[in-house]
Design a protein that fits this description.
By secondary structure, the protein is an alpha+beta fold. It has 11 helices and 14 strands. Strand 1 and strand 2 form a beta hairpin. The chain is elongated.
C-alpha cells in the first residue's frame, strides 16, 4: 500500500474498526461487503460464507439494489452455488485474484439474466486459522481497473473480516445452543404438565417449539402409539407421502429415543434455504432425546398414579371387609338375639326389620368390595369376551381360545364396545371363510390396545378381501389406530387391530 496516502491508511483503519463492531453475523457480513466497496471504490461487492461441508450458507452483496428491482433480484435467485470464479477463492490454498476483464479467465461462465455485466474483478479468500471459510470480491472500480494497492487493502480488510466473522460465528453458535436449550426446556414442560391425557396437544406444542428453534417451515412429531402431531398443519405436513405445498428444500428426520428404545420420530422441513448444518442436526437430535425422556417420564408417572389408585382401592376394600362388614354382622346378630327375647310384638317386628336392613347393607358393602378389589374384580369386557368366545366355540365346534395380557380394567369405557365389535366381526369372518380348526383371540393392553385374532384356516388369495373388514379399518382409523391383515393360502390368517389407549 502506498505509504504516502494517509487517507487510504485512515480509510483502512476505519474499515477494520467498522467490521469488528457488533456480533450479529448477518450484520457483520453486510458491513464487510459494503466496506470493501467503499475502500476500493468498486461499484459492486459480495461476500460468501461456506460451512464445514463446503455449502455456501451465507451470501451478502452491495450495489445490486441500485441496478436491479425486487422482481429481478427474485428472478436471479438467492446465494450462488460456489462454482465459477468465486469458487477458486474458497479453496484452502486460494490466492488473491485480480483481473482486468472477467471474460478473459478460463473459469468464467458468464452472467445469468438479469445479473448486471461486470468487467474488472478483485477477489480474496477469507480465512480463520489457516482455513478458508468464505470469499470477498469486488467489481468495476471507477478507474476501470484495480491496482496493487486495492489488492493489498482488500487483503488487509479480509484479515480483519476473518476475525470478525469468526467471533460472530462463535456468538451465533452460542446463541443457537441457548435457543435449543430453552426450546427443550419448554418442550419438556409442555409434555410433563398436562400428562398423557392430553399428550397429542402437548406434542403439537412440541412441534411448534421445534420449528421455531430450527427456523423450519414445518415440524411434525409422531409417536408409535399416536398419530402425527403438528401445529396448524395437516397431519401429513412434511411427512412421507405428503401432497400439496412446495417441495421441501431440506428435510430432517430424527428419532425420539430413550436409549435403544425408539418412541417415535420428529420431522423438520425447510421449504427454502440451505437447511440444517451438522451442528443444527446435533442440537435437534439432543432436543428429541429430551422430549422422548419427558414422554417416558410422563407415562411412568401416569402408571404410578394408576397403580396408587388401585392400591388405594385394595386398601379400602380390605378395611371394609376386615372391619365394617364384621361389625355390621355382629350388630345384626345382637339385634336378632334381642328380637328373639323381645316380649312386645311390635318391638320384635322392628328388630327383625332392622336385621333385614343390616343384611341388605352388608350385601351392598360386599358388592362395593367386589368392585373395588383389584384382584377380585371382574371386568365386564372380559366377561363379554369370554361369552363371545364360548359362543363361537359352541357354534363352530372348534377350539377357540381367549388370551388377555395387561390390566383389562384400564381399557377406556368408549373403546370396550369397539373391541367387542372387532372381535365379533373377526370371529364371524372365521366362521364364514376360514375352515379353521383352531382360533386364538388375544387382547394386549399396554400403551395401546391390540386385539389379534389368529386362525389356522385356508387363508385368502393375494388381493382377496373378506367382507366386513373395511368396517374394522374404519373403526381403527377413527380412533387414530391401525388395522392389518396377514393371510396366505393354506397358512391361516392373522388380524391385528390396534388403537392408542388414551
Amino acid at each position: 500500500m502506498a505509504s504516502d496516502d494517509p487517507r487510504r491508511v485512515r480509510a483502512l483503519l476505519d474499515a477494520v474498526i467498522a467490521v469488528g463492531e457488533g456480533l450479529d453475523l448477518d450484520a457483520v457480513l453486510d458491513r464487510i461487503a459494503t466496506t470493501a466497496c467503499e475502500l476500493t471504490g468498486a461499484r459492486y461487492g459480495a461476500l460468501g460464507v461456506q460451512d464445514d461441508t463446503g455449502r455456501v450458507v451465507g451470501f451478502h452483496s452491495h450495489g445490486m439494489d441500485h441496478v436491479l428491482d425486487a422482481e429481478q433480484r427474485a428472478a436471479l435467485g438467492g446465494r450462488p452455488s460456489g462454482g465459477g470464479l468465486p469458487g477458486l477463492l474458497l479453496r484452502d490454498d486460494a490466492e488473491p485474484l485480480r483481473l482486468s476483464n472477467l471474460a478473459d479467465h478460463p473459469r468464467f461462465v458468464g452472467f445469468p439474466d438479469p445479473h448486471p455485466r461486470m468487467t474488472a474483478f478483485l477477489g480474496v479468500p477469507l480465512r480463520v486459522g489457516g482455513t478458508t471459510f468464505g470469499n470477498l470480491y469486488v467489481a468495476d472500480p471507477p478507474s476501470g481497473d484495480f491496482t496493487a494497492d486495492d489488492e493489498e487493502a482488500l487483503q488487509a480488510l479480509a484479515s480483519a473480516a476473518g476475525v470478525a466473522v469468526g467471533n460472530a460465528r462463535l456468538y451465533r453458535a452460542a446463541r443457537r445452543r441457548q435457543t435449543w436449550w430453552e426450546a427443550a426446556s419448554q418442550a419438556v414442560q409442555a409434555v410433563v404438565d398436562p400428562g398423557p391425557a392430553d399428550l397429542r396437544t402437548a406434542l403439537a406444542e412440541v412441534a411448534r417449539i421445534a420449528a421455531a428453534a430450527a427456523g423450519a417451515d414445518v415440524a411434525t412429531v409422531r409417536l408409535d402409539t399416536e398419530g402425527p402431531c403438528a401445529p396448524d398443519a395437516p397431519p401429513d405436513a412434511g411427512g412421507p407421502g405428503s401432497t400439496g405445498g412446495p417441495a421441501p428444500a431440506a428435510r430432517l428426520d430424527l428419532p425420539l429415543a430413550v436409549g435403544s428404545q425408539t418412541l417415535g420420530t420428529m420431522t423438520l422441513v425447510w421449504h427454502d434455504g440451505p437447511g440444517p448444518d451438522p451442528e443444527d442436526t446435533l442440537l435437534a437430535r439432543t432436543f428429541g432425546e429430551r422430549v422422548a425422556l419427558a414422554v417416558e417420564a410422563s407415562r411412568a408417572a401416569a402408571d404410578r398414579a394408576a397403580l396408587a389408585v388401585l392400591q388405594d382401592r385394595d386398601r379400602i376394600a380390605q378395611d371394609l371387609h376386615d372391619h365394617v362388614t364384621q361389625r355390621l354382622f355382629a350388630v345384626g346378630l345382637s339385634l336378632q338375639a334381642a328380637g328373639n327375647v323381645a316380649r312386645v310384638p311390635e318391638v320384635a317386628r322392628r328388630l327383625a326389620r332392622a336385621v333385614d336392613d343390616l343384611d341388605d347393607t352388608i350385601k351392598d358393602v360386599r358388592r362395593t368390595i367386589f368392585q373395588l378389589h383389584g384382584t377380585a374384580v371382574r371386568s365386564p369386557l372380559r366377561d363379554e369376551l369370554e361369552e363371545l368366545v364360548a359362543t363361537a366355540r359352541a357354534d363352530l365346534g372348534i377350539a377357540v381360545r381367549l388370551v388377555v395380557e395387561g390390566p383389562i380394567l384400564a381399557v377406556p369405557d368408549d373403546l370396550a364396545p369397539e373391541l367387542l365389535a372387532v372381535a365379533r366381526e373377526a370371529l364371524s369372518n372365521v366362521a364364514k371363510h376360514a375352515h379353521a380348526q383352531r382360533v386364538e383371540v388375544s387382547l394386549r393392553i399396554g400403551r395401546s390396545l391390540e386385539l389379534t385374532v389368529t386362525d389356522d384356516g385356508d387363508g385368502t388369495a393375494p388381493g382377496g378381501r373378506r367382507s366386513g373388514l373395511a368396517n374394522l379399518e374404519e373403526r381403527a382409523t377413527r380412533h387414530g389406530g391401525t388395522f392389518r391383515l396377514r393371510s396366505e393360502p393354506a397358512s391361516g390368517t392373522t388380524l391385528v387391530w390396534s388403537v392408542p389407549r388414551r
